[in-house]
């Protein structure tokens, strides 16, 4: 028997519960087993930690977690300091809120006549049903009660109506057991790379510096970073700059709020303290929002070079032909030579349908113009503790491999163009692992940009390479 619990919901619940990945096993379903207290206790008593989920008819999803066992025969309260209530959706919109227990003496209440009950004493915080509820038109009308903020801290909402819309007609009620997920077998390397070392990082840097445009009309490859708010675009720019400066830097402002910190079309060139600068210009952009920010027309103008550097994006008024800033005759150097979609692995499964559709539409526009694309997956240290402790394990990490594949499945990318990275964040010292992943991604992206020009029919090309540059590039090919 499989339930309705989504992967994104499991990920969120795992974060709230803590202590690693969990295995969720469906114990009870109102639609399959019947909405009766007898069946609930028959299926769920003495099963250890459980999570209860309610799905109402207007698209709201809420419930409760307890680390204690249900026990219908005891007819009493059970103390549980780890218990919490939560909401996952309101009116079909993802809304993640956790409501921790404030009076753990009355965390849950087990009684043979009741279904799941959270709270009690002066009022049950969430008493779902008692006895038997018959289905009517595929719905069950809950007959319990909901007291607000008695034993649980309900931060972020003003009443239960903010959670269940005042609608107690439910399509489903599920209870899952929650157990520690057993460790998976060691995964074979899903991407073959040589053994990491300082020498390898140095060779990668030299390889990046040796890649330069063959076309004499441009000096640098123009790379556009596109991604949702908070995905790590600006942090990636800072990471690349730090690699070439040899110290932690912050040229681009960063944030993790709901609104984009980056407001302009901001190009970054990277000057090394010792060696020559790479022939690349990475351009940060305003973070994508489902119904806000850059739209498809403005994105098209960006690709074609009609948007000037430093242009301030205006969410309420996208750039147009008659805008004084509009570049009417862009040069080849103004156009985008590669688009890099930046995605945060910790929110990948939480992207709403509007955001997914927007990214797909941008991807389609880019493909129509023959511009190469790549993906940067950020915050990979949040996926796997082993990776967080040692970035060298990223290419043998099951969690990372699955997330890379998930990104490919969601947006249609080829795995070879998806690059996991860990941006510099709270570090004070340089890290070879961070440097390697950033340089490896940058090198491959620059190769894609070169491929773009190889596919263009241009009359003016300059294929001359210095012997030194050729040797360095050839050396980096093996990395």
Automatic annotation (TrEMBL):
Belongs to the IFI44 family. PROSITE patterns: TLDC. This is TLDc domain-containing protein. It comes from Dreissena polymorpha (Zebra mussel). Residues 459-479 are annotated as: Disordered. It holds the Pfam family TLD. Residues 1-179 form the TLDc domain. SMART domains: TLDc.
């Amino acid at each position: 028997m499989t339930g309705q619990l989504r992967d994104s919901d499991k990920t969120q619940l795992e974060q709230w519960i803590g202590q690693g990945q969990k295995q969720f096993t469906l114990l009870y379903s109102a639609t399959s087993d019947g909405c009766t207290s007898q069946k609930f206790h028959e299926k769920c008593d003495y099963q250890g930690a459980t999570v209860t989920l309610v799905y109402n008819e207007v698209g709201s999803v809420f419930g409760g977690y307890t680390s204690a066992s249900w026990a219908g025969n005891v007819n009493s309260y059970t103390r549980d300091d780890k218990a919490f209530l939560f909401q996952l959706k309101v009116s079909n919109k993802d809304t993640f809120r956790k409501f921790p227990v404030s009076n753990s003496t009355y965390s849950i209440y087990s009684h043979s006549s009741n279904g799941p009950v959270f709270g009690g004493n002066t009022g049950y915080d969430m008493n779902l049903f008692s006895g038997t509820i018959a289905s009517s038109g595929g719905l069950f009308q809950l007959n319990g009660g909901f007291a607000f903020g008695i034993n649980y801290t309900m931060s972020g909402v003003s009443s239960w109506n903010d959670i269940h819309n005042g609608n107690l007609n439910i399509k489903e009620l599920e209870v899952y057991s929650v157990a520690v997920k057993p460790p998976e077998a060691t995964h074979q390397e899903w991407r073959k790379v040589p053994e990491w070392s300082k020498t390898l990082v140095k060779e990668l840097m030299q390889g990046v510096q040796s890649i330069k445009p063959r076309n004499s009309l441009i000096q640098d490859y123009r790379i556009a970073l596109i991604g949702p708010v908070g995905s790590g675009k600006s942090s990636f720019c800072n990471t690349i700059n730090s690699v070439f400066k040899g110290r932690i830097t912050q040229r681009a402002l960063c944030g993790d709020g709901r609104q984009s910190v980056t407001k302009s079309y901001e190009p970054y060139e990277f000057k090394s303290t010792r060696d020559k600068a790479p022939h690349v210009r990475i351009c940060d952009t305003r973070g994508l929002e489902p119904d806000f920010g850059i739209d498809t027309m403005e994105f098209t103008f960006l690709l074609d070079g009609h948007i000037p550097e430093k242009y301030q994006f205006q969410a309420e008024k996208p750039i147009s032909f008659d805008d004084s800033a509009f570049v009417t005759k862009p040069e080849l150097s103004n156009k985008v030579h590669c688009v890099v979609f930046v995605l945060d692995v910790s929110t990948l499964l939480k992207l709403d349908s509007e955001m997914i559709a927007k990214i797909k539409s941008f991807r389609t526009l880019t493909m129509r113009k023959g511009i190469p694309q790549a993906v940067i997956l950020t915050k990979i240290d949040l996926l796997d503790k082993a990776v967080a402790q040692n970035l060298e394990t990223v290419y043998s990490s099951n969690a990372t491999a699955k997330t890379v594949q998930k990104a490919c499945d969601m947006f249609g990318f080829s795995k070879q163009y998806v690059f996991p990275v860990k941006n510099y964040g709270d570090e004070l010292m340089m890290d070879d692992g961070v440097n390697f992943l950033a340089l490896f991604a940058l090198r491959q992206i620059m190769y894609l940009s070169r491929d773009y020009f190889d596919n263009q029919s241009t009359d003016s090309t300059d294929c001359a390479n210095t012997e030194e540059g050729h040797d360095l590039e050839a050396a980096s090919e093996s990395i």
